[in-house]
Design a protein that fits this description.
Elements lengths: L2 H10 L6 H12 L6 H8 L8 H13 L4 E5 L2 E5 L6 E6 L5 E5 L1 H13 L10 E4 L6
Parallel strand pairs: 3-5
Antiparallel strand pairs: 1-2, 3-4
Helix pairs in contact: 1-2, 3-4
């Protein structure tokens, strides 16, 4: 994602694209795994203009509410990841936190079959599958 795309994502949830907020999105974009606000704080600490922990929490909360970042849960901890725009689902490793996007088509056929068998009309769905990646097994 480019800085312009980051700025658009921030504006889409009503936030100005400040240096600190752009740094948060850049850090999320660099990570292959879902990360916590605390992890972002540690990763960004020491950089010029690094955001404080409160700014990180507020920014992540607004981005998650607006659908610009995905939220995952590991126990009581919220983890965040910047994902692609296309409809998709996730494989989430409980060990290392890596998140792999699954194309929607891989899940949609199953959703259609299950709902049809039960005479159920689907209006929305989400499928995040938790387990262990090959490296953590």
């Amino acid at each position: 994602m480019t800085e312009t795309a980051f700025a658009r994502a921030l504006r889409s949830v009503g936030l100005r694209p400040t240096g600190a907020r752009l740094a948060i999105l850049e850090a999320l974009d660099r990570s292959a795994r879902a990360v916590s606000a605390q992890e972002l704080f540690v990763a960004l600490r020491g950089n010029p203009g690094a955001p404080g922990l409160a700014t990180i929490y507020r920014t992540l909360s607004a981005l998650a509410e607006g659908g610009a970042v995905e939220t995952f849960h590991k126990g009581d901890e919220a983890l965040f990841r910047l994902c692609g725009d296309a409809h998709h689902h996730h494989l989430v490793c409980n060990g290392c936190g890596v998140v792999e996007e699954i194309e929607a088509a891989e899940v949609e056929a199953w959703v259609a079959r299950v709902s049809r068998r039960r005479s159920f009309t689907v209006t929305a769905h989400s499928a995040d599958i938790y387990g262990l990646c090959a490296a953590c097994r």
